[in-house]
Amino acid sequence: MSEQKFDVIVIGGGPAGYVAAIRAGQLGLKAACIDAFEGKDGKQALGGTCLNVGCIPSKALLDSSRQFENVTSHFDAHGISTKDAKIDVKTMVGRKDKIVKQFTGGIGMLFKSNKVTSFFGTGKLLAGNKVEVTGKDGSTQTLEAVNVILATGSVPVELPFAKFDGKLIVDNAGALDFDKTPKRLGVIGAGVIGLELGSVWRRLGAEVTVIEAMPDFLAAADQDIAKVAAREFKKQGLDIHLGAKVSKAEAKKTTVEVTYEDKNGEQKLTVDKLLVAVGRRAYTEGLLGDGTGVKTDERGRIEVDEHCWTGVDGVWAIGDCVRGPMLAHKGSEEGVMVAELIAGKAGHVDYDTIPWVIYTEPEVAWAGKTEQQCKDEGIPYKTGNFPFSAIGRAVAMNDTAGQVKVIAHAETDRLLGVHMVGPCVSELIAEAVVAMEFKGSAEDLARIVHAHPTLSEAVHEAALSVDKRAIHKAN
């Protein structure tokens, strides 16, 4: 069989890979994308972890569970009476599946409109920028490219003493497909996945215990914001244990017995389901053939420069399989950057302003440096903050937990970081990112007119607070 030739072959159809393929197609390059992710119907499901078992389905369940909690716990404050409200978990999960299928199919349509050739199977990079594709039936074919983009993503980290069985001990995919609400849910890891999926099932009635080995809650976030978030999660009923290290998880017939150690010694916890969410690792096994020249680091990540070039002519790598935060939007922007560089255009990603979001309630979001990072790096800084409890729109929404914190350079006033916990901060953080991208200052945010009444006024007031000029709080 003669080899098919392409300008660009992308291995991986997640948010990094499929975006790279589409952008390459837009730029007039002959592009192909190889992906092996399989939907529940056994057909190819483009979109990777993010779309199939990550970002999108988790947000669908978060929204369904939030609606249920509003009905059962919050509508009475608005004078809305409800009685004996129930939720059908199977219907909720079915809705999630429909949303996933809608979007995976949408990517396929975008491929067609941008003349991207899709291959259903696994890809392996060979020497000379050739790619071997192994189909679902085991058949192989070899493709040839001028450029190859490696975008194989990541997989959940599995603990040796808590192996996934898909029934009692699960990863994020398993926790998205429970057929009923577990009475007791254990979560190992108080990161984004653990907190979001723990929140989903807590709202539906599960007793949720989160076990985190780190002594600090949300160590990557600004600690002023993390403290507010921890307090709110505790109020909601999430039982979070910090500085607790799990040593054993034994699956019984219908339960899991977890053994962990904290400051009080050895502890036992019995749960009906156990979600292991201790992080993800780059998925690069079997990706590189002999003689490719592509290197990986001690964590299995593909080594690249600031423009995602591997050092091998025509070979690039993007997304979760390279350095940097494992975030869908980071991978997508790298995909755009690399496609544009291949086409001879300028390509760039500013890694200092990538926003982070946790879609709990309250939501948590940030961009830029934390206060602790400024201290560690010896950067002179000043801060301002403002609570949502003093924002008219938040009070009207009965959603007042949280605050906005702005960090600016003490001498130049340039924005160094903006951190938020509260309602809709996943959307509000974009304003901060735009300001930081344009090298804006706290003064710039403070001078911009914000509509009233809106949640965005908290950003405005926090910026004013940097120079002790906030109008609606004591400075």
TrEMBL record:
Domain Pyridine nucleotide-disulphide oxidoreductase dimerisation, residue spans: 354-463
Keyword Flavoprotein in record: yes
Gene Ontology terms: cellular component: cytoplasm
Cofactor note: Binds 1 FAD per subunit.
Catalytic activity: N(6)-[(R)-dihydrolipoyl]-L-lysyl-[protein] + NAD(+) = N(6)-[(R)-lipoyl]-L-lysyl-[protein] + NADH + H(+)
SUPFAM superfamilies in the cross-refs: FAD/NAD(P)-binding domain, FAD/NAD-linked reductases, dimerisation (C-terminal) domain
Lineage top rank: taxon: Bacteria
Subcellular location: Cytoplasm
Domain FAD/NAD(P)-binding: residue ranges: 6-335
Binding site for FAD: K59, G123, T152, G153, S154, D320, M326, L327, A328, H329
Coiled coil: none
Molecular function as annotated in GO: dihydrolipoyl dehydrogenase (NADH) activity; flavin adenine dinucleotide binding
Main location class: cytoplasm
Enzyme Commission number(s) from the entry: 1.8.1.4
Binding-site residues for NAD(+), renumbered to this chain: G189, A190, G191, V192, I193, G194, L195, E196, E212, G279
Keywords: Cytoplasm, Disulfide bond, FAD, Flavoprotein, NAD, Nucleotide-binding, Oxidoreductase, Redox-active center
Entry cofactors: FAD
Pfam family, one: Pyr_redox_dim
Active site per database record: H452
BP term (GO), one: 2-oxoglutarate metabolic process
UniProt key word Ubl conjugation: no
Entries under PANTHER family matching the protein: DIHYDROLIPOYL DEHYDROGENASE (PTHR22912:SF224), DISULFIDE OXIDOREDUCTASE (PTHR22912)
Further comment: The active site is a redox-active disulfide bond.
Family per record: Belongs to the class-I pyridine nucleotide-disulfide oxidoreductase family.
This protein's name: Dihydrolipoyl dehydrogenase
Organism this protein belongs to: Oleiagrimonas citrea
Gene: lpdA
